[in-house]
Structure formats: structure tokens, C-alpha cells
Amino acid sequence: MSGTETSAGASGEIVLYRGEAAKRYHRHLFSLDDACYRSAGDDMVRTILSVDLDGISRLHIAAGWETVVGIALWTSGRLPAHEVISLLRKAGVTDEELLPFIGADVRDLFPWLYYGNRFDVLRKICNSAKAKVEAKLGRKSLLVYCHLVADEAEKIVASNL
Predict the structure, then answer these.
(1) What does pTM read for this prediction?
(2) Phi and psi (nearest 5°) for 52?
(3) Which residues are registered as beta bridge partners of 59?
């Protein structure tokens, strides 16, 4: 997506998604019109900043682990491992639990959290991403919903709802 997009129209909702699976999982749960969906491409942060939110009261973001963490850290591209570790600490993960992941790839953290049933942590990551978007956009009347999708599970596995 490049430049400024137009709003979703009468629905007052827009969904920025990364990947067709995220769109499909979100649409299955929320049944919004196809006009509400906008592909974010590779840079969700840039997309969030460029989308036209005139007439929009609800912004949904549906994406995978790395994208949602990137939003929470407000960064694009490669995620700084030390910042991801810090985010996880703030979400309640202990230093002892993180010890095996020091020096590991950031992508290795999601399966550990998901299969370890750490949905509380995943939800806090979604809340952090929501808070970051709200702070960066500065629109108090805009409701932001962040949905973390997992291709392995073929569903939304965490949300700030």
C-alpha cells in the first residue's frame, strides 16, 4: 500500500492486515465487508501512519507475531532482540524463563509462548501494540483492536479485546 488510502466508508471500521491468512481469520470472526480490509504489505508501521482515518471509528490490525511485536516496539524491519526481550519482561515473562532464548532468533519466542499456553503474555503484547498505535495516532475517539494471528493454529490466538 502506498500513499494515503481512503476510508472504509459507511462501516466506520477498517482492518489493516498482513498476509491473506490474517485477513481470512479476522473475517471469519468479524464478518466485515471486504471494503473494510486493507493489506499492509511489508511495513505495518508505515501503513498505520499513511491510512486515511476520516470517518473511521474502529481500526483493527490483524497480523502475525513479528508484525505485532514490531508495532508494539514501533519499528519496521528486523526486530532488535534486546527490545523484544524487554517487551516480554514487561508482559510478565521472568528472566529465568527467557534464559534459553538469549541469543535466539525472535521468531523462536512465539512457538514457545503459544504452545506453552502463555496467552496472557500474548494478550499483553497486543495491548502494548494497541497502546503504541493510539499514542502515535493521537485520536482519542479511535478504537484500536490488535489481533495476533497464528498460521499454525489457523486462527486469532490473542487480542486486546
Answers:
(1) 0.90
(2) -80, 115
(3) 14, 144
Nearest to 45 by CA among 75, 66, 13: 75
Give the other-Cβ count within 10 Å of 161's Cβ: 12
Look up residue 68 and give its amino acid.
Answer: V
pLDDT reading at 7 higher than 80: no
Question: How are beta strands 13-17 and 155-159 bridged, if at all?
Answer: unpaired
Q: Are 7 and 55 spatial neighbours (Cβ–Cβ below 8 Å)? A: yes
- 3-state SS of 22-86? HHHHHHHHHCCCHHHEEECCCCHHHHHHHECCCCCCEEEEEECHHHHHHHHHCCCCCCCHHHHHH
Write the pLDDT tens digit of every residue in 88-146: 999 999 999 999 988 889 999 999 999 999 999 999 999 999 999 999 999 889 999 99
Lowest mean pLDDT among 4-8, 12-16, 42-46, 113-117: 4-8
- The grid coordinates listed for 27 are 473475517
